[in-house]
Amino acid sequence: MKLFQSIKKIGIVISIPVGVFVVLTFLTQIQGISLFAHAGHVQTFVRSTTIISFTAWALALNLQSGRFDFSLGSMAILSSIIGTQITINYGLPAFSLIFVIVFISGLLGLFSGLVYITLKLAPIITSVGVMLIYEALTFVLTDGQGLLISTQFDLLVLPSTRNLLIILLVGFAIVYFIMNHTQFGYNHKALQHGQEIAVNTGLPEKRNAILTYMLAGMLMGVVGFINMTTQGFTGVSLNFTSISAMFIAFLPMFIGGYIGRFSEERFGIFIGSLTMGLVTLGFVRLDLPRQTQEFVNALLLLAFLTYLNNQGRLKLIFAFRKKSVNHSK
Q: Which parts of the chain span the membrane according to its record (predicted)?
């Protein structure tokens, strides 16, 4: 019985990415092309999966505690600008870039958390204010020109497929360990499932909130590093444009929440991100326009949320039909 349950859980976990892979393979075959034609497509898939994973992990941290942080995208952009300028100006080794950017982004997350607990306003309000500050700083620090590193070849070779895989696996291991084997992780789960009870028992809610913002910032620093070294350029963000960086993480986060019933939630988010990485590669291979990509992403999100909202009803319908068939026999 236990073996059957384990096989069932594994089947549920892998069914979503496998199903998407089969559909995309079929669609690309119709067009006379392959989903993975050469190494560049593998790199695109790994890069998309890594970016989406880190963004979804960061987004889920605060959202699970009832806080929506709009400043995540601006943290990634601002930290990549500051970190890259420091690395270049001080002649630091190329490999240190990711550590500098993650450190800066952690400080930006720390500031966001301090603003939240100091002002005691709704998190959605404070995050919008912090986001606007960070967006303005991207403009001020680059004179509105953004930051170009196309001549820094030692930085541009950093996001290789191998390095991205290392970043993804190490990132998952760190997030998994923090959330499942540290006091911060235990407190985070306690506050998530019963905030009033947890606070009454003496859990440090404010400290946990600050650390959550800081960890989310560090995760977004990795996203900023990948974007900067892949594109060789980071533009300025004004008028809420940095928010768009979070949209692609919603579906993986909800998929992760669903899969988390059968496995670990961070792993579930990774599986959801892997699925979206396949979808992103599919868009590239099918040469779909950006508007169509956004429409399909929104449609997939709507379909999955509709399924989650009506999952209980669907089970009742299938159970009723099964009973009807058995009675007819």
A: 12-33, 45-63, 70-88, 94-117, 124-142, 162-179, 210-228, 240-260, 267-286, 298-320
